Description:
The complex is a heterodimer. Chain A is an alpha+beta fold.
Amino acid sequence: xxxxxxxxxxxxxxxxxxxxxxxxxxxxxxxxxxxxxxxxxxxxxxxxxxxxxxxxxxxxxxxxxxxxxxxxxxxxxxxxxxxxxxxxxxxxxxxxxxxxxxxxxxxxxxxxxxxxxxxxxxxxxxxxxxxxxxxxxxxxxxxxxxxxxxxxxxxxxxxxxxxxxxxxxxxxxxxxxxxxxxxxxxxxxxxxxxxxxxxxxxxxxxxxxxxxxxxxxxxxxxxxxxxxxxxxxxxxxxxxxxxxxxxxxxxxxxxxxxxxxxxxxxxxxxxxxxxxxxxxxxxxxxxxxxxxxxxxxxxxxxxxxxxxxxxxxxxxxxxxxxxxxxxxxxxxxxxxxxxxxxxxxxxxxxxxxxxxxxxxxxxxxxxxxxxxxxxxxxxxxxxxxxxxxxxxxxxxxxxxxxxxxxxxxxxxxxxxxxxxxxxxxxxxxxxxxxxxxxxxxxxxxxxxxxxxxxxxxxxxxxxxxxxxxxxxxxxxxxxxxxxxxxxxxxxxxxxxxxxxxxxxxxxxxxxxxxxxxxxxxxxxxxxxxxxxxxxxxxxxxxxxxxxxxxxxxxxxxxxxxxxxxxxxxxxxxxxxxxxxxxxxxxxxxxxxxxxxxxxxxxxxxxxxxxxxxxxxxxxxxxxxxxxxxxxxxxxxxxxxxxxxxxxxxxxxxxxxxxxxxxxxxxxxxxxxxxxxxxxxxxxxxxxxxxxxxxxxxxxxxxxxxxxxxxxxxxxxxxxxxxxxxxxxxxxxxxxxxxxxxxxxxxxxxxxxxxxxxxxxxxxxxxxxxxxxxxxxxxxxxxxxxxxx
Amino acid sequence: xxxxxxxxxxxxxxxxxxxxxxxxxxxxxxxxxxxxxxxxxxxxxxxxxxxxxxxxxxxxxxxxxxxxxxxxxxxxxxxxxxxxxxxxxxxxxxxxxxxxxxxxxxxxxxxxxxxxxxxxxxxxxxxxxxxxxxxxxxxxxxxxxxxxxxxxxxxxxxxxxxxxxxxxxxxxxxxxxxxxxxxxxxxxxxxxxxxxxxxxxxxxxxxxxxxxxxxxxxxxxxxxxxxxxxxxxxxxxxxxxxxxxxxxxxxxxxxxxxxxxxxxxxxxxxxxxxxxxxxxxxxxxxxx
Lengths: 788, 288
């Protein structure tokens, strides 16, 4: 086989020149002839009955084309289905009307839409809509929503606001805890994974055009999964699927927030159909904060059992997962399948018992946010590892080492029932400890604080589940789709190639990595390869970009399709060279006859002949392209060790973030530069949860962190330089040997930072502080104040 | 984030701008760098019918040493211009040090000293500094200019001594002599960059003792203030860490520290004391 040229090369992202020179087209950049603009009127109340809705003044406002209310949409739009119906959980799926008809359930719930000739007229007219609300009692806390007597009920047929109760059991956790209480150690701790707000640089935007002559609906919009969006758009609008085309132009980040099917895209499609004009809607940042999905928001009681030597024996706990007012598209699967199943991390924990209550509250819907369930799980187990180490007076590195799944036990089936594909955890830990100079830090710590600043080092050794996923397995978890991926590799008569993928990269760089794969397989110059995605009118169905699946599953499909192209090209080349196919050598884009290197045809020559079809071997069809549909046999499980070093100023609780080392293993690496970029961004988002970010609702359901002036999205100057390194343990089942890396940084970094801060605070006897670790919380913990 | 409709004027002289203010009264707002006004207009928290953009009036952005030994700073000088002004760095380094930590680079490139002072956000950075410097704010109205001492300028939250038809045209600060040390330190809000606490210190030291102290504090209460009790406790003292800490403990005497999601009243008061100590120690080290 040819030696790879581009696999493993740190070439620059081909996407960037257009992105950084302002030559990219985002949805909001689109200008269609006759286009009008929508403004959605949203509820200022978290829970209320609509007693009067008067839109007449808005209708009369100059420039207004139409005004619609929930009643106008009733019957015209079907409810958007829930895509993850987790089994055996008594899951309730109350519908979310695109516009509220008589009850609003969170601040931001839509009540009407104004369509006008320009955005200004739409906004001004929206202010003229009169709505009388009769406020209802509000609940924003998921524990209170379930347990407080008389807590407000959000949905008539959902007692105690419990959307589902999901139970996980493996082994015999109760017995293990009995044993540990008698002759071992039990560590208990309550944890909060606070609510986060995803902050894609580009807010959500939709442009819809309906052709009443052809019955075709075309929707350009900010989605991570255009093909799923087409399916759901067809279901919701009733327009047949073949008449619906979804185009995701440039999408400026998503982090999961552009996976769901929102009411807004259905509303805009409705407006386009009923006004006969193309309609644009772009949320502003305030709407983005109020109505685009949030992430995390778990309250957890957890305990672990271990022997006195630090060997873990069991994990037991319960999580209240806040789902917001309605079920977002994939919401039920996030705090359960993607969270509960990963709680045992990279450790041999033979017994597990865990329960998750999904709870409705008067807050924005919660769904997948970068890492989606795994950051919450990693935070829990990695904090527990440090608490256990502290309890037993062991070094946190040693207690991890003792419990790692040994490399000779892979593929390893966990107590939760997953089978980890591959892993070798100690080398990554060793590399990270060496890079951070762990023993020197421990020596420095013994010298005591310098100028009131306490040194701390924190570890996070993680593994996570990604590369979603084998269709049959995700189907068994209730996911209402397949998670295979598609590819078409099409060579053109001039020898250039277009590659279609069913994934939808929106910042991850697969236009580059996919081209690297195809360039190697077909010996083409990379500049001769175009990667096309994001348009249901071009290329076959696929499932999109999330769950660190794009390179793993989409790349798998691409390499299979490229190999099929090469196989066909080899047949044609053999025929043209009058040689047996088995006698051909393929190297650097050239087929030659073994032993006669001058008897050769380039891939470009073969491609031209495939199109001319003047002299094809019998049974070979003209043209040169192939498609592939790749359904992986398992998930992939990347892993690694992250280490953070901080100094805590005891006088103020201020944290100096000093150093950070990330050693990740994502299998084989196609483009180290892009992998580093993904890791850097992931670390930043994970650290943000540890130190700064946190969405806060008032008891009345008002979002108190409703803008970037209140909600602390971090900035570059708040971080030290990251040191990144890798170990390489290929996935044994993936055709490229790759594992996902889009979320590892977010999954790993949060507990590394928190552990570092709490390590620094050990002299004060402080063992836990809830995130974000603001100076006041740290100061309060140090100085023993009881306030929260 | 779409503002309500407004009429836009871009006068080219102060007189013309004043005429517009006179004509439109309460319905008019002055636009300088726009970093306070435009966000609240986009949230529709402010809906002025008329916006008077003074950004095109020439000559209002100069920074120069004046004949009377003061430095004059045009109202339209940006934070970035203050940060990098050679004159200020040499003769009044407290202002560049303050300007350098305002918001972020985009804000510093557009925001102006006059706009920031006129807005009088209690968590802005300049108020404490101009108070500590005993700066003068020159306001121009239709009948001419008047000079407002900084200590009389800040009336309440977002409220100043400016009259309805008056525009800040200049800020005057003293040249700081030998033996005077200054410092501005702040704890920025991690989201907004505004001062949770910001402390400006001006100290004159001779013979190892503090001869004069001026401490201006931002972010703590509804308006920036001079910490008189701290100043009193410092004057006449040798500024070692213990004495400074004891003095700084008075940072919020007579002041009700504000409480918000990020910092409770109690913690904010604590931060004020710690940052006052830091500012004084830093200024003292520079006075030497």
